[in-house]
């Protein structure tokens, strides 16, 4: 599979703290790569390393198949649009003036400015000073700046931070439309699992600077195994009966957890236990949510 | 040139011209006030007097102008967090040069107009002799050269620290030390770049303590005194470029 970004043993140390540890990131071409992690996990640092805004302590970064170094960096970045942390803007200039500056630096046609203003729905506000924009509008302007040169790779760091629910929805729709509209690969970081769940096709989970999961979103969902939870009036007797009959189970708090089974099999368990006079007061299906999986991967003490 | 025009576009509505205009206005008023009451011997020494007077005044005003201008030019990058965007679009050296050129141009313009003010005031007040073109050209060279060193100092400070109070305070301190350095012995004065405006002058002042008068006269250009200034320039310019390149945003 061709990869847009590949990092190999990437490390970044600030003082004595290792913010990014031996990171092996692999972003497939054409994907929306969700880079997920709690606050302070090292997401922004990793993205800054990829963009050359921070210097790696160790490791290599390859983008578009070329190793990023001080010589190749700017030629690689010509094909990358980015929005890191908060949007960059000149508050005393209008939205259009801001974009025109980037247009001059990027040397892209005039028409691109008009087009991206339409894409991010800022055409009506283009003549307003950016200092008078709302945070959502500033974020959209940041996205417009990133899109201006129709890059092959778009890197967005927490693009919905600080937005209201309507703004989040709007930004999400915009990001989702980009791969098909501009044939670009998108890397989007977030500390919100639901966000990544709705946006990404591939997921990387970072925790304390280490990549703890990297695969397709489906494979993350596949980890959410279903099981049956049985509530009985005498769990120890029920456990003995199940054990005697060779039925696999686990004792889970005040319940007995059985592997997920079809209806007939469930009926046979019930019959078996009631025949031995074990009262069953509840049977429920339990499914691990993405949150559970995330917490399992990152440790329960982490605040999301 | 591209980075310069970009800088000029970025600085739209920043009113960068206000401070040079104020400095120039102040200098004009000072020149008119001090030369307005001249007669006899004063008019004979007029050109030398007004040149060294302006240079001493520059020790006070130019560091403030440099600090304010550099601060105005860099503050917008810190406030809008635009360095992280610019550094992905253009080489750090381009950003450094664009800002240096744009900010310095205002300083140069101020120095150039200042020279014209001196020439005009001399003619208007009737100083003896023709306009000393060579001396005025040298005065402009001193002002422009030292301006470059001083502007580099404040460009580096404004670039490195988001809090522009640091740069502005350093500007006021520089002005104070620079002005005060006129009283220091020559060897000590050459260690203080803010005082170079008058230290590199081609005008000598001698005081007659009994008559409580001062005499102003042109002396040969002190080219040797430029050595510390050139050394400083050779250190500051690459240091600034490296610092910006290595600055993580």
UniProtKB/TrEMBL annotation, chain A:
Annotated PROSITE patterns: ABC_TRANSPORTER_1, ABC_TRANSPORTER_2
Coiled coil: none
Domain ABC transporter: 5-233
Keyword annotations: ATP-binding, Nucleotide-binding, Transport
UniProt GO molecular function: ATP binding; ATP hydrolysis activity
InterPro entries to which the protein is assigned, alphabetical: AAA+_ATPase, ABC_transporter-like_ATP-bd, ABC_transporter-like_CS, P-loop_NTPase
Highest taxon, organism lineage: Bacteria
The family this protein is said to belong to: Belongs to the ABC transporter superfamily.
PANTHER family xrefs: ABC TRANSPORTER, ATP-BINDING PROTEIN
Name of the protein: ABC-2 type transport system ATP-binding protein
Species classification: Bacteria, Bacillati, Bacillota, Clostridia, Eubacteriales
Automatic annotation (TrEMBL), chain B:
The protein's name in its UniProt record: ABC-2 family transporter protein
Domain of life: Bacteria
Membrane-spanning parts: 16-35, 47-70, 101-124, 136-154, 166-184, 226-244
Keywords attached to this entry: Membrane, Transmembrane, Transmembrane helix
């Amino acid at each position: 599979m061709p990869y847009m970004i590949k990092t190999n043993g990437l490390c970044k140390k600030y003082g004595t703290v290792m913010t990014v540890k031996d990171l092996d990131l692999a972003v497939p071409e054409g994907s929306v790569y969700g880079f997920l992690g709690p606050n302070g996990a090292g997401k922004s640092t990793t993205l800054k390393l990829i963009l050359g805004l921070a210097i790696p302590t160790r490791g290599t970064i390859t983008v578009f198949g070329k190793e990023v170094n001080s010589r190749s960096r700017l030629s690689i970045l010509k094909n990358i649009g980015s929005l890191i942390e908060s949007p960059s803007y000149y508050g005393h200039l209008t939205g259009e003036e801001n974009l025109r500056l980037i247009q001059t630096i990027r040397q892209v046609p005039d028409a691109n400015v008009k087009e991206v203003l339409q894409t991010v729905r800022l055409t009506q506000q283009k003549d307003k000073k950016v200092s008078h924009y709302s945070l959502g509008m500033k974020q959209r302007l940041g996205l417009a700046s990133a899109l201006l040169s129709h890059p092959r790779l778009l890197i967005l760091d927490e693009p919905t931070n600080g937005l209201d629910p309507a703004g989040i929805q709007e930004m999400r729709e915009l990001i989702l439309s980009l791969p098909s509209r501009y044939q670009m690969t998108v890397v989007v970081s977030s500390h919100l699992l639901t966000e990544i769940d709705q946006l990404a096709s591939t997921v990387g989970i970072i925790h304390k600077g280490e990549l703890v999961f990297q695969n397709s979103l489906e494979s993350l969902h596949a980890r959410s195994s279903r099981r049956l939870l049985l509530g009985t009036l005498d769990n120890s007797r029920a456990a003995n009966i199940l054990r005697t009959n060779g039925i696999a189970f686990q004792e889970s708090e005040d319940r007995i957890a059985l592997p997920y089974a079809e209806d007939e099999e469930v009926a046979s368990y019930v019959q078996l236990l009631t025949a031995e006079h074990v009262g069953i007061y509840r049977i429920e299906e339990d499914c691990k949510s993405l949150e559970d999986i995330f917490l399992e991967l990152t440790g329960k003490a982490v605040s999301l | 040139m591209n980075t310069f025009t970009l800088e000029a576009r970025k600085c739209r509505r920043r009113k960068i011209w206000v401070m040079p205009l104020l400095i120039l206005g102040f200098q004009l008023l000072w020149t008119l006030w001090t030369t307005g009451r001249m007669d006899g011997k004063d008019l004979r020494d007029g050109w030398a007097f007004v040149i060294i007077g302006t240079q001493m005044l520059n020790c006070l005003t130019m560091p403030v102008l440099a600090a304010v201008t550099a601060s105005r030019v860099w503050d917008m990058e810190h406030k809008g967090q635009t360095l992280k965007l610019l550094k992905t679009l253009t080489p750090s050296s381009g950003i450094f040069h664009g800002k240096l050129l744009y900010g310095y141009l205002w300083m140069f313009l101020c120095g150039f107009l200042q020279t014209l003010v001196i020439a005009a005031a001399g003619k208007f007040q009737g100083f003896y002799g023709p306009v000393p073109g060579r001396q005025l050209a040298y005065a402009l060279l001193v002002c422009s050269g030292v301006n470059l060193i001083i502007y580099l100092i404040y460009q580096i400070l404004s670039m490195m620290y988001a809090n522009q109070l640091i740069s502005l305070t350093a500007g006021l301190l520089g002005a104070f030390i620079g002005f005060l350095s006129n009283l220091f012995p020559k060897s000590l004065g050459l260690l203080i770049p803010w005082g170079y405006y008058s230290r590199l002058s081609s005008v000598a002042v001698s005081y007659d303590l009994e008559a409580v008068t001062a005499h102003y006269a042109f002396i040969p250009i002190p080219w040797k005194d430029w050595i510390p200034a050139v050394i400083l320039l050779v250190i500051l310019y690459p240091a600034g470029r490296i610092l910006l390149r290595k600055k993580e945003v």
